[in-house]
Amino acid sequence: MNTKHIPHYVSLIAIFLAGLTGFYVYSYDKYFQIAIVVALSLSYVSWGIIHHAIHKDICWTVVFEYVAVSILGLVLVLTLIFRT
Length: 84
Description:
- This protein has one domain.
- The longest helix has 25 residues, at about 30-55.
- By secondary structure, the protein is mainly alpha-helical.
- The radius of gyration is 14 Å and the shape is flat.
- Helix content is about 80%, strand content about 0%.
- Helix 1 (about 5-25) runs antiparallel to helix 2 (about 30-55) and helix 2 (about 30-55) runs antiparallel to helix 3.
């Protein structure tokens, strides 16, 4: 097993846990939840770019993939926020 990626994935999990915690704690404020989801989305893209830059395997397709997944997740969560 290659362990050089573990610190990177621990930081990614911490980012998501902080976002989920904030989303739950501020469940009464839809606009703050939107801010949290946008920040989480931007953090995910930033993490992906930094991770691949460190490992010297970054290219435009990788960036596009992180942006696409981030936008998809953002649209899904915003749809859920505005539906309720």
